[in-house]
Design goal:
Strand 2 and strand 3 form a beta hairpin. The chain is built from eleven helices and eight strands. By secondary structure, the protein is an alpha+beta fold. The longest helix has 22 residues. The protein folds into three domains: about 120 residues, Sufe protein. Chain: A (Alpha-Beta Complex), CATH 3.90.1010.10; about 55 residues, BFD-like [2Fe-2S]-binding domain (Arc Repressor Mutant, subunit A); about 80 residues, Fe-S cluster assembly (FSCA) (GMP Synthetase, Chain A, domain 3).
């Protein structure tokens, strides 16, 4: 389990400014449900060009929700010029730090803010800049270069933590390594991609993660979970105890169980509850 600061937990359990601003001046949407994270940020300006209202809607893990909530608090009351200076590192620091595996959540917030500002300025939606390097998550070479340069990244794992690139099939690792080397001037080690997993291997890993990572956490709150079936990357589970009657059970399935399995087993997995 990751160690989260009290501030991350607070913004996850009690997120601020959830929703959509009516008649928003700026609208920014990033990510996709297929990739496991999506964020919509909307804001409204007052007569002094300050952000008078800002709200968000996020689909993702606890860190994604906390980062989005923190961002809205950070930019509320700021002028547009001041808000534009907020970086993903600022978001992480505001929360007292994020696990390195979750830094991509702060990057998503920064990207949504940039898109919302561009929308307010009337700038046309930019076409994909650069060439797609990571097909699993649609990350370009310019996205990776920016992340490496701004955050002083040195390894392929670092890049994956910040922009997800390389976290899927791993076929892009060699190209990511070349980009890191071109930016830093230091040769980067490229590990051999993991072999393609069969369904049986996926099932075994899913069962292992459920037992080792997920069940202990649910049992602390009087709940439990079992794997019922697996087919076409659909993980069918049954919830027990408090989890089966909890109104937030679907959030638990998507934002915790599915997110954990996607990270530790395969980004292609989808979790469904069966009765």
């Amino acid at each position: 389990m990751w160690e989260y600061t009290d501030k991350v937990k607070e913004h996850f359990m009690n997120p601020r400014n959830v929703g959509v601003v009516e008649g928003a001046d700026g609208i920014g949407e990033v990510g996709s449900l297929a990739c496991g994270d999506a964020l919509k940020l909307t804001f409204k300006l007052d007569d002094e060009n300050r952000i008078s209202d800002v709200k968000f809607q996020t689909f993702g893990c606890g860190s994604a929700i906390a980062s989005s909530s923190a961002l809205t608090e950070m930019i509320k009351g700021k002028t547009l010029e001041e808000a534009e200076k907020v970086t993903n590192e600022d978001i992480a620091q505001y929360l007292g730090g994020l696990p390195k595996e979750k830094m991509h959540c702060s990057v998503m917030g920064r990207d949504a803010l940039e898109k919302a500002v561009a929308h307010y300025k009337g700038e046309e939606e930019k076409e994909i800049n650069g060439q797609i390097v990571c097909e699993c998550f649609g990350v370009t070479d310019l996205d990776i270069e920016r992340a490496v340069r701004e955050n002083h990244l040195k390894t392929i794992d670092d890049v994956t933590h910040y922009v997800k690139a390389g976290g899927g099939c791993q076929k892009c690792h060699e190209k990511i390594g070349e980009i890191i080397t071109s930016v830093t001037g230091v040769a980067t080690e490229v590990k051999k991609p993991a072999p393609h997993m069969t369904n049986i291997e996926k099932i075994r890993q899913i069962e292992t993660i459920l037992e080792r990572e997920i069940k202990p956490s649910l049992r602390k709150d009087g709940g439990d979970i079992d794997l019922v079936d697996f087919s076409d990357n659909r993980v069918m589970v049954r919830l027990y105890g408090t989890c089966s009657s909890c109104s937030a059970s679907q959030n638990t399935l998507k934002n915790y169980v599915e997110a954990k399995l996607r990270e530790l087993v395969s980004p292609e997995l989808f979790v469904e509850e069966v009765s």
